[in-house]
Every structure is written in C-alpha cells, then in structure tokens.
Amino acid sequence: MKGSRYILLLVLCAFGTAFLMPLWAQQTEREREQQFTYYWYAARQAKENGEYDRALMLLLQCEQLKPDDALTLETIGLFYYGTGRRIQGINYISRAFWLDPGERWQTYYNLQDLVDPENTPTKLKHQKMILEAAAKANPKDPEIYEKMVGVYAAMEDWSATLNSLDKIDELRGKDSRCAKTRFRIYRYQKKDKQALAALEDYLKVDPNDAEILELLIGYLSLEKNASFKTMEPLYERYLLLNPHNPVILNNYAWALAEKKKDLEKAETLSLRALSMEEDNPVFIDTYAWILHLQGKRDMARYFIRRALQLTSPGSAEQKEIQKHYKIIYKK
Fold this sequence. Notes:
CATH topology of the domain at 31-99: Serine Threonine Protein Phosphatase 5, Tetratricopeptide repeat
CATH class of the domain at 31-99: Mainly Alpha
Shape: elongated
Distance between the termini: 138 Å
CATH superfamily of the domain at 31-99: Tetratricopeptide repeat domain
Helix content: over 70%
Number of helices: 17
Structural class: mainly alpha
Strand content: under 5%
Order of helices and strands: HHHHHHHHHHHHHHHHH
C-alpha cells in the first residue's frame, strides 16, 4: 500500500511539473515582451530627444531580447547607416530583409540607390534579387512589380518588364501608366500591332483618358499616316476632354485643311492654337495655309512670311514652310 502511494506521488509530481512548466515559460515570455516594449519606446523617446547613442543602445537591448525581430534589426541598421557606420547598417538591414522580405524590402531596395546612385549592372542585379524575393514572399503587393518594371527595363529585359506590367494590371485593374509603358516598349521593339493594341485595349476600359488618346493620335497621324476618317473622331473626342492642347488643335486644323473640309472650323482651331503659342512657326504656317485655301491672299502672304522669319536656317521646319511660301506667292 505504501508502495502504491509512493508511485502515485511520483506520478502527481511528474504531471504537476508538466502542468507548471508552460506557466513558467509563459510568465518569462511575458516579462521579456514587457522589457522589449519598454526598451523600444524608450529608444523612440531618446531619438526624439536627440540622444542617438542612447537610442541605439536601447535598440541593441531589444535585439538581445528578440534577435529575429525584423523591424528592430532594420531600425538598428538605419541608425548605423545614418551615423556613418555604413557596413554595420547594411548588414543589419540585409538581415532584416531576409527575415521578412515581403515587408522589409523597401528599405533594402532603396539602400542600393544610396550605395550606388548609377544603374550599374551589379546594383541592378542586386535590386532584381531583392524584388524577386519580395514578390515570392508577398505576391499581392503591386508596388513590388512597379519597381520590377523599372529594374527590368533598365536591364532591357523586355519580356520580364511586360510580365510585371501584366501583374500590376492583374492586381490593380487596368492601369494607364502600364498601358503607356507597354506602348513605348512595343514601339521600341518595332512591334506596331502590339503598340497600337496597348493603347486601344486601355481605351476600352477608360475611353476618356486624354493622355492615352493623345498618344494614339500622335502615333496614328505622325507615324502611321492614318486616314482622316480614322483621325477625325479621335480629334473630336480628345478636344472634348482637353480643349486647350495647342498641338492637337493645330494638327486637327491642318488635317481639316488638307481635306479642304470645313475651313471655317479649321481657322477657328488654328487661331485657338495660335492664341496659346503666337510665335510658333508651325502654327503660323498652318494658319497661313488655311487663309490661302480661303482665298485670303494678302493675309496668307503676311503670315507665311512671319512663319518663315521665325524658323531656324536650314531646319526641317524652314524647308517645309518654304514649300508653302512658294505656293502662296505663286501668281
């Protein structure tokens, strides 16, 4: 009987210790958390008071309590870097990043610009590594992919750039900046169909985006020599959104004049452009040509002379205006 009681006592002691151990550990963890919080806020107060050495000492105490706390390590790194101890700063910020790449990537990424302001291959390779690790840890952050666009473009990795743009559109919905960047990449690659599609696809989402419309008008009229039938509704749509763009006003006026269609409207558009840039020789040339088509010979001659006077000798503008000058002065 005594033996049974002895065994029972041993069992109770064993289980009692097992029950008590988590409580002991929990209390210790709570104390450590309280200490950490005290040091953290004390460090903030010290920083606000300009006591940077004391703030750093308190942050190092925080590190002792939580050696894997990414925010603490990043903050220590910034203190070190800001006080001229760059190597220690970079090491701490790097440690913070690899502990939590999804949240701590911005500081480590921006640090590369401070260390190396130029877009050297080494820096771009490092930034690419940072962003790819961040995207893997936090694939829903569109800001990561925005930075990727810049890095991949600087590396001329156009396929990766376009993939990043697609990811931004996926996360945020169609984005006009992405459409413009996609357009410029395809133009650079001389992929006309894709360049045009980049603008037209976005206009299906937002038909009232004046910047995208302006790009489309410029691309179609200047590079693709699109028909007036194609251009007229685009000009009209754009000017409803932005009636104060002198280049578009002038170009539309010229398009109307070329078709000899509605010369009064062409004159009105041309005068509106001139009211904004009265010494622009291209705009004056347009106005002179419209006057010529209207049979207002004296006024046309006056303005074509004025346009010619404002051009640079030997310039492409001067050569083009000289052609109109000869026609207008021809008897």
